[in-house]
Amino acid sequence: MTVRTGDAFVIQKSSLDDLLGQLRQAGYETYGPRVDRGAIVYRPIASTADLPRGYSTEQKPGSFRLAQTGSRRLFDATPGADSWKPMLFPARQSLFEVTPSNGDLQLTFDQTEPTRRALIGVRACELAAIEVQDRVFLRPDFSDPGYRQRRENLFLVAVDCHDPAATCFCHAMGTGPAVRDGFDLALSELGDEFLVRVGSQAGASMIGDLQATPATAFHHQAAATATERAIRSQVRTIDTTDLPALLLSALDSPRWDQVGDRCLNCTSCTLVCPTCFCWDVVDTSDLATGRTERVRLWDSCFNPDHSYHAGGGLVRPTVRARYRQWLTHKLGSWVEQFGVSGCVGCGRCITWCPAGIDITEEVAALRQEAGE
Amino acid sequence: MTARPPALAQLPQVLLGPAWARLESIQPEVEGISTFWLRFEDEELASTYRFQAGQFNMLYLPGYGESAISISSDPAVPDRLGHTIRFVGNVTRAFNRLRPGDLVGVRGPFGSTWPIDQLPGQDVILATGGIGLAPLRPVVYRLLAERHKYGRIVLLYGARTPGDLLYTSEFDAWQQAGIETVVSVDRADETWQGHVGVVPMLFYRLRVDPEKTWILSCGPEIMMRFVVYEALARRIAPERIFLSLERNMKCGQGFCGHCQLGPLFICKQGPVFDYQTLEPYLQVEDF
Amino acid sequence: MSKEDPAVRARLAEIPWFMELEQSHFDRLLSIASLRQVEAGERIFSESDEQDNLYILARGRVAIELHVPSRGRVRLATVEPLEVFGWSSVTPVVRLRTASASAVLPSELIAFPADRLRAACDADPTLGYVVMRRLANVIAARLMVTRLQLLDIFAHPSEGPTS
């Protein structure tokens, strides 16, 4: 059967294992969500047996719990602290090595072949986050070579979110819960079947050998209804009207002092955020060989040294200043820099903040203050 | 290949690995500051590399790290690059231990440039202090190369003490070539017969025509704030006041996130900015 | 009462603030002004002198200095043409000179005897207001400069972990 981008099919749930098998045969390592010690993590998966069947999550500020629903659904557990970001932008990456040789310095770049990776169960918010990171690392004027390579070797199997957590606000941010584009294949879990949408040539080539029937209006309707329910179930919202202008005009608000008092400066929010891109470099040397290595590491604007420069000291010396930088960048300056908001509404920063700080609440407070 | 992003093959690679340059000579300037003269090892690079006044290179010492250093030499002589470095941190202090013949990694040139092409026919005031004169020296050379194109050119330069003034051996030549060179120090010694006071004060005796005067300023941020104040008080438009800012830089190309001031990446849209662009952000405390 | 000296009038005419004065105020100030020439290195007034004159520097350069034990004479600031110095002679509270002034270059000063300037201001409050307002600006500008010098903005920053 000829499969084209835009086509939609229905497969039995069990066929998902066939898809995984096909991906592995094509040379892809398959990754997906798994349950591990009370959390949902992204790890290699061999089959659908590894997926969090019958799990959903209960999330609120500063709290994440798994719950067992007893259903046979595979993708109801919304993401935990893990995001797909390390697949494209590793937390630690060697940039190059320098080796002294005969009065010269030899520069060697990492030549490892990139691995092909298939990500299974990528949510709409996560696709949006990948698109945001694409805009950071792949720009018209330059691209990060490592990111580019990994991006080219990625296969994305997205999934519609039917059971958002209480901390989710993707609908308010316009990124979900239904998957729109940016995928190779998109799944919608309907009972014992999956509605599969084809998003690319690569996706089309994976469908070919599966037991698939064309999707009917019934299936599309069922998926749409599930999405509607998911949208209505989202309790959190954020008013994004003119948000950059609002934030940049509220830089002196007392609200920053208030949140600065509560914030523990633990950097958890930036760690779990799927769009944060700050990175640092460290140089290490081997005294025995004289070889030095330059390594790139994730950084966070909450790290005190983030704004330190030798000529002027610490630009942001207080927690208040650093929190303000994070929020006004994520929801404000980012738009001017990259053309989209830096926030995709995944809610991780709310769930994983030990102080229970909620950016939707902070924005609402600033908006109310401005409206007074 | 996934649905997006498009056309990856066409995007130029970001510059993460350095090109090697040989340290040809070290010119001590004042205590704690020297100018390092570099020449690329690769002949083609040495002959094709170009930079404009205001730009900087990321200079790399393996095992220590990188430092963003403004290029302080003449853009018309780009095969020998001068970098005036103040020894204040780990990397820059390591520079102080280099000897001619050592290799230095160079990535660049990065950053925005002083608006020299808008200056013909205009009066130019270079208001600078301390090591801030380093990124402005290329401007001096450019202006002097075609002195007749410009109106009045004034250099207002201040430092902590007379011993901290950079490039003093060139001042006479600049004065002769048509730059009014006005120098002041914060603290005088017994030999100093010049001005004692701060750079913004040097504005007091200047008569400026606000319609055709441009200000190019570089120095401690607080000095630049007062220069802006004096310029605005003399009704010079914010679009004609240019500052060079400094922030923590790791990549030099606007994607490591460190050098941001609001939406501006100091390494990419800056370090040279007009005041109109900076105005919403510069005066915000701890931003 | 000095007779009007055309040289003094000429110097005052170079100063924008004087040209903006009402004629009666200008004449009054002109009548108490005189010119004084000093050589390079000449002391104009010393700390703890009783105040005598308010000065405007017409030409040259003057240094304001303080004598600091074990440091000798410390030059705090320099005065440029058209600037006012020695204003402590006119302000109501400070009665003794707080610093000394010496010419750095051969200089020409316009001197206003403080007691006669004060008397003129007392007699004509409007003139007094105009003069004090001008002095307030002079002192404010000097304060701003002093603050920046105090901040020591070119001092070497403390050590840190990065480049």
What do you see in this structure?
The complex is a heterotrimer of chains A (372), B (287) and C (163). With 372 residues, chain A is an alpha+beta fold. Chain A contains 13 helices and 16 strands. Chain A has helices spanning 15-25, 85-88, 124-137, 145-152, 170-173, 201-207, 217-233, 243-249, 255-262, 268-272, 319-338, 348-351, 359-371, and strands spanning 8-12, 28-36, 39-44, 55-60, 63-68, 92-101, 104-109, 116-122, 154-159, 185-190, 193-198, 213-214, 279-285, 292-298, 308-309, 313-314. In chain A, strand 15 (308-309) and strand 16 form a beta hairpin. Chain A is globular. Chain B is globular. Chain B is 18% helix and 30% strand. Chain B folds into two domains: 19-110, Beta Barrel (Elongation Factor Tu (Ef-tu), domain 3), CATH 2.40.30; 116-244, Rossmann fold (3-Layer(aba) Sandwich), CATH 3.40.50. With 287 residues, chain B is α/β, with parallel strands linked by helices. In chain C, helix 4 packs across helix 5. Chain C has a four-stranded antiparallel sheet with strand order 1-8-3-6. A four-stranded antiparallel sheet of chain C has the order 2-7-4-5, with no helix packed on it. Chain C has a domain at 35-147: Sandwich (Jelly Rolls), CATH 2.60.120.10. Chain C is α+β, with helices and mostly antiparallel strands and 163 residues long. Chains in contact: A-B, A-C, B-C. At the A-B interface, strand 6, strand 7, helix 3, helix 4 and strand 9 of A face strand 4 of B.
How many angstroms does the end-to-end distance of chain A come to?
62 Å
Shape of chain A: globular
Biggest interface: A-B, 73 and 49 residues
Task: Compute the average pLDDT of chain A.
Answer: 94
E-strand count of chain C: 8
Helix content of chain A: 25-40%
Uncertain parts of chain C: 159-163
H/E element sequence of chain A = EHEEEEHEEEHHEHEEHEHHHHEEEEHHH
Helix count from the secondary structure assignment of chain A: 13
* CATH class assignment of the domain at 35-147 in chain C: Mainly Beta
Percent of sequence in beta strands of chain A: 25-35%
What CATH architecture label of the domain at 35-147 in chain C applies?
A: Sandwich
Strand order of the largest sheet of chain A: 3-2-8-9-10-11-1-12
CATH homology superfamily of the domain at 35-147 in chain C: Jelly Rolls
The end-to-end span of chain C amounts to 67 Å
Which sheet architecture does the biggest sheet of chain A show? 8 strands, mixed
Strand order of the largest sheet of chain C: 1-8-3-6
